[in-house]
Amino acid sequence: MSVLLAQGVEVTAGEAWTFWLLAPIAVIGALGMVLARNAVHSALWLVLTMLALGVFYVVQSAPFLGLVQVVVYTGAIMMLFLFVLMLVGRDAADSLIETLRGQRAAAVLVGGGLAALLATGTYRWLEGTPAAGLAEANAEHGGNTEGLANLLFSRWVLGFELTGALLIVAALGALMLTHIVREPGERLSQPEQMRARFAPGNYPAPKPGPGVFATSSSNTTPAKLPDGTASPRSISPILPIRELTAAEAADKETER
Amino acid sequence: MTTDFQLPAIDYQAISPLLILFGVACLGVLVEAFVPRPARRRVQLGMALVGVLAALGAVVLLAGTNVVTAGGSVTVDGPALFMQGALLAFGVVALLLIGERRVEPGGAFVAQPAITVGSEADQRQASAPGATEVFPLAMFSLGGMALFIAASDLLTMFIALELLSLPLYLMCALARRHRLISQEAAVKYFLLGAYASGFFLFGVVLAYGYAGSVDLAAIHAAVDTSQMNPALLYAALALIVMGLLFKTAAAPFHVWAPDVYQGAPTPITAFMAACTKVAAFGALLRVTYVAFERLAWDWLPVIGVIAVLTMLVGAVLAVTQTDLKRLLAYSSIANAGFVLVGVLAVGRTGASSAMFYLVAYGFAVLGAFAVISLVRDREGETTHLSRWAGLGRRSPLVAGVFTVVMLALAGIPLTGGFTAKFAVFSAALEVGEGWLVIAGVVSSVIIAFPYLRVVVMMWLSEPSESTATMVAPGLLTGTALGIGALAVVGLGVVPGPVLDLAHDAALFLR
Q1: Which of A109, A133, B75, B478 is the most buried (most CB within 10 A)?
Q2: What's the pTM value of the predicted model, to 2 decimals?
Q3: How many domains are there within chain A?
Q4: Using beta carbons and an 8 Å cutoff, which residues of A are at the interface with B?
């Protein structure tokens, strides 16, 4: 299954197989990212697409780009993004209320139309173009990474430096939008915290864990105090207290 | 290591304005880290003003330079220098507005944007001194704009586009009053801007596919020699121009402008209206005149339709506005259409008329927003038209300045607006684009109505209880107002020197 193009480089069977196996996965990942309701799922779909792209780069003899794609984009940036999502709270699902009537249908129609136009267009316009391959460019400076470095630090040195300025702006913006300066005295010192802990009215010992019973050992089941009442301190305040069904609450005849 | 590595020749003098701007921006970040909080604003404002003036001086010293440097990333030629000069002059005025703290206690910017809107902590910071990070952000943005105008390949242009946009998105979110609207504006601008950047980038890729290079000059050469399907080039042109027209707020890529102009802090709105327009049109001129000039007969009708649409949409919708900031947003859309008429008169006259228009419009709009920042009540700025009724009786001087600015925007003779419109329309007539001129004159007439309505309301209505008060301008806003009004009148009475300068500068180096 090898395709020989006029004057171009031969596309090997392995490359073609890799492409046709991974290309649908990359597209599915991209679609999943857009369609998933949950932000975490979206991020994970995007990871799939990025990994597939990383393999494409490696297969197309750009190993450095492929590795950067996997290590930096997928490994570092997307994982950091996931951490942030988890920290912020992943319950913020998209609101699906349309403020403009028919907007979604129109967006799907027009967006899909543009995508179809560009996809079929680029396919038709580039049909029969010989693949140049990277062999020649890679040989020039003794390797792919060396060639890339040479370009970055000679022809594109200004753009490379200015990307640094872009990163400064990004860091500054992230700090501005997230960092709150604490007023002096706003944060309690260690002795103050300790005194508050043992002050009358506070309970200094660890809180009891949730109940572990034969009927249920869920985190949402409160522990029972010696007098048989449920202890609200034993479960997290954000969890709803689990209501037992009648069957669960019934006597299991284990006391006999 | 291979021995064939060679650093590209960099003409440091030619890129000195850029180096100064980015250097001061980086220093500004260090000031945030090391200078005690109470002294920061003075240090930042002084440094930023000195930096922009030094860069302006460097641009003036470079006059007449024609050089491609930094490995072919930057072209320093007449249009680049002229528009960089205009940009930096607007930058000075915008910085004066950004630095103002007398009009509103603490300034127009919130102290800590991270604090939740409406929380107890937010009420405590109501009159705390505003965030000073806005100065380095503005400097980075100015640097990006200066590079955007001078970029001689599409990749550098893309980096410059991001570099000018990212600080703008951030600064939009920093308003002290009406913070939720401000944050909404920032998110809208960011999402739509990222989308437009995506279009631009896709266009760059297609252009590379056609020409085998992202250099504007190489694309120009490839139009004749490339073996590729020319449809690639047309698609590239369409997508790149789409990305640029978004920044200029041309219809149908204008929908972000009213919301963002209204939500952003007024000094930032002024900065966006004056400086971003110059940068975006600088890049648009360079792309269309340098890279795609040979396709002019193909893009002229398309961008011509966009220009007509932009002028009419901006003018008609401006008539229906009751909020002054939104009115000026639609006016900025209409004015983008007028500049496009100049761009479409392909040639030296067209470029010089568009550049002159940008100068005249920039000073007028800076003056307008300076006045808007002064008209207030207890809630902050009052931008509703009805609140402006009778202001002329109360504070004739500032209302007089606003009147001059509005007349300039309407294109009344003896103001810069008239000269600019005349230059653009005569350039279009010269190359036989009469239909653009007809549409331009019609929309000029339409859009004169909302401007004159504000003027009539200010002077001919009796002041009532609902009339807002005009805060006395501090030194900074006063200077900005003075520069704006003087420039508007000066460009109308003695436009010759600037027109000649624009004409001498209007030759692109390929």
Answers
A1: B75
A2: 0.88
A3: 2
A4: 118, 121-122, 124-126, 129, 141-142, 146, 150, 153-159, 162-163, 165-166, 168-170, 172-173, 175-181
